């Protein structure tokens, strides 16, 4: 009998943050959480993330209860939904093999982990919470507060969640380190060549070496309205870069003069909403990379005078054999424009002398790494957001990684700051 099966419930890692800010009830995930049935034993968190978190494709996950067959609770359903299907008539055998490989790996590793790792109160003798309200957080959502926001709770509230054995970054994250990479040498060229044959996909090739393509009418009006709706994202914040790792394996925020934008992250509303899911799924099928490997969608807002100086999206490539390198580096940027900009605000690739003007609903895509070796950064795809001279620019990043970023992020293994 699966621990988590049936009565699918959407939960959300952002809820804890929101509830602290007093807005839990307006939150999709939290509302759903409040409708839940009786609480499950909290020590099940350790089992939960091994079994089901691996099926999630971002911020939210589904917990199902009361039905046999826990595999339905996450991985399998999500794998199919976001799987590399569709795109009739397009070769996809390699992608499917890769997906099958990922799933086989998950099953093997998770079975082994479940047998090996002790969980329950005994693991918590010398372990303290780092936040005094942890017991209260853990009790929230009818006792499922730990499952609701694992990235934060596993670590900061380890005592209250009985996850002391998972506080250590290596213990928590090791099963993700050797998951198959999302790209093999040679895949990038095949993927871009294949795009021309995807039925119904309008694609303009702006550059072939390196690849930069534009999808002139990628987003539908429904998607744009949805993405521009304030309910689909967290609060706007001043953009920061990621700095050095702290003692908990999280990166510190660094503010730099090279960047003046506001950013916000996709919340449960956009991750779990059918429109958001369909969008991710469409992009995943174009790229032939599973959503396990993506970052949450990032919204960008530039007012007049705002910009992002030349940079590379895969700036921080770490060593191949670095045991802490779970999500690895960014391999693709899928960049979407949500509005027209009156003046300025183009995306410019200085080494290619190429500038793309924002157009409502259009998208551009480029790889950050070389076709022959996904571990080698392609510096020719450095780019910048030119200053907005008049009007406002609203756009979105969807970055794809060589390692399973979505899974890593979900359980605090991506190095992202604790939220
Ligand atoms: O806004 C743009 O045109 C590009 C933004 C960008 O490069 C980034 O957010 O990494
Ligand atoms: Fe960028």
TrEMBL record:
Its cofactor is L-ascorbate. InterPro entries: Oxoglu/Fe-dep_dioxygenase_dom, P4HA-like, Pro_4_hyd_alph, Pro_4_hyd_alph_FE2OG_OXY. Keywords: Dioxygenase, Iron, Metal-binding, Oxidoreductase. The keyword Glycoprotein does not apply. Transmembrane segments: none annotated. It comes from the Eukaryota. Residues 293-402 form the Fe2OG dioxygenase domain. This is Fe2OG dioxygenase domain-containing protein.
